[in-house]
What does this fold into?
Amino acid sequence: MNKTKIGWIGLGNMGTPMSEQLIKAGYPLQVYNRSKEKESALKAMGAGIASSPAELIQSSDIVILMVSDDQAVREIFNAESGLLSVKTAGKIIINMSTVSPGVSKEMAALSAEFGHHYIDAPVSGSVKQAQEGQLVIMAGGSESTFLKAKPVLEVLGKMAMLVGGTGAGNSTKLAINSLLALYAQGLAETVIFANQQGIKTENLLTLIGQAALGNVFTKIKGDAILNDQYNAAFALKHIVKDLNLAKNEGLSSPLATTALETFQQAEPSYGEEDIIAVIKQLNS
Ligand code: NAP
It folds into this structure.
């Protein structure tokens, strides 16, 4: 049994399989989720349950956050029973959520005031990669904190790279997710165009899969289109969040601007479905 005690906050589509990897790797794990019913799967695997972020941080060496957005992060740090509501120091706080570089800088400064060490470490990859410990992790913060966190990050991902100071992981993630948005919209538009030309989706996807454009994303999302299966692995509402975050950081290129418009139009109907449900919006 590994001795580093880990506290996990956020048991959504990603947080659940990621935290399960830590249990499988032998880390003592305690979890907290705002909606308590999502904690039962982890409890069944042997995780402890904390009643609040405050309780969680007191009994952990490392606290990991995997939650939706900037607002969720601020609440988890600053709420009445949040991470910073208790007198304890010297913890490592790893924020793996896709959030703004600004919120990371804010939380890193607050963490330092309390004697904690913060790194941002968002991930590329989705539920399948999370289940297999094959995420790609990009981190921002001090090298010494990164090196202490690295053994844990390497359970969750196939690689973890320090890309700069606080917020640099978030900036990198926003850049990668703008490409993700373009791929998703591009794949959807390509399928629709081919269908209009009388080409079967299955044949088109088989050919793309064998060509230079074939990749894991095309395979997984192509299968989703073929099976008319749009349950969220990566909810469409999250790409709207990410494109807005990238826009706030200055991304105003022609493709990114168009993608933001498209996904914003899709969000009211398909926000809770997977990103590739954008095909339904483009088809309507
Ligand atoms: P999700 O399934 O929507 O889960 C979101 C989690 O955040 C839930 O545990 C939710 O708690 C919690 N949360 C939201 N607002 C909160 C608040 N105000 N206070 C406390 N907890 C709050 O999201 P996900 O797909 O796991 O994604 C998590 C993060 O990873 C996001 O930033 C996303 O952009 C990023 N990401 C996702 C993927 C993917 O493929 N899904 C891939 C890479 C990165 P409740 O259960 O109470 O709602």
Notes: The domain at 6-165 is CATH 3.40.50.720 (Rossmann fold).
